Amino acid sequence: FFTAGIGIGALVGAVCLILGCMGTGALPMNGIGIGIFIAAFVAFAVDVQVGIPRFWTGAGLVLYSIASFTMFRSVDGLSMRPSWFTLLVCITGVALTFIVGMPSMVRTRFATPTVGRENLIGTTGTAVGDINPEGIVLVDGAQWRARTNRATPLAHNAAMRVVAIDGITLEVEPLEGAAKDYREARSH
User: Fold this and answer.
1) How many domains does the chain have?
2) Which of 11, 33, 87, 164 could hold 70 in an S-S bridge, CB 3.0 to 4.6 Å?
3) Which parts of 118-175 are beta strand (E)?
């Protein structure tokens, strides 16, 4: 819940969506302004998927600025538009969020775990299906992508040992009958 992932973001987003819908229903909204506002956040979402601010962040900021001025319609000659200061603070806040905050948030969200994987080296497990040269293994109750070490295939349910880690892929070899490196063969 407290990670930079979906937990707290989804909760805050759901609450804001509910409050935003309630406010939209009570205020005199302009449909075109709301459409531009939605298009702005679709543009922001494109760059969130890419991970770094580019063209779509700029397009989203322009659309967001336009939507800020066109979202509310006048009622009986009275303007419901927020003050210039409020608009400037909101536009600057959204810009800083998507230009500075979002890239680091996306890096955190999609980064591979880096703590504790080395503990898996030397651990034994079983093959989930045939591994020749790639497949899935079960190690310490978790399934991992695996690649056989030195092209030694593993059959389904074969016992194996983790010998190295390459990113999030484990390099494995059978417990018995693994291919030997010529340097290992000479040392014995």
Assistant:
1) 2
2) 33
3) 124-128, 134-139, 142-148, 159-166, 169-174
Whether the CA torsion 1, 165, 48, 88 is positive or negative: it is positive
Between CA 48 and CA 58, with CA 52 as vertex, the angle to 5 degrees is 80
Residue 4 has pLDDT above 70, yes or no: no
Its pTM stands at: 0.50
| Structural domain boundaries, residue 23 | 6-110
Q: Summarize pLDDT for 52-89 with one digit per residue, the tens.
A: 778 888 999 999 999 988 888 888 877 778 888 998 99
Token pair, residue 33, equals: 């302004």
Question: Of 110, 135, 165, at which residue does a domain stop?
Answer: 110
Residues 106, 122, single domain; the answer is: no
**Torsions phi, psi of 178, nearest 5?**
-75, 150
Question: Helices marked H in 51-101 — which ranges?
Answer: 55-70, 84-96
Q: Exposure string (b/e) for 3-36, b if CB count within 10 Å is 16 or more?
A: eeeeeeeeeeeeeeeeeeeeeeeeeebbeebeeb
Do 124 and 105 fall within a single domain? no
Residue 41 has pLDDT above 60, yes or no: yes
Q: What tokens does 183 get?
A: 């340097």
Question: Which candidate, 124, 140, 128, 129, places its Cα nearest to that of 173?
Answer: 124
| 181 in the same domain as 139 | yes
From 117, 146, 120, 124, select the one nearest 134 (Cα to Cα). Answer: 146
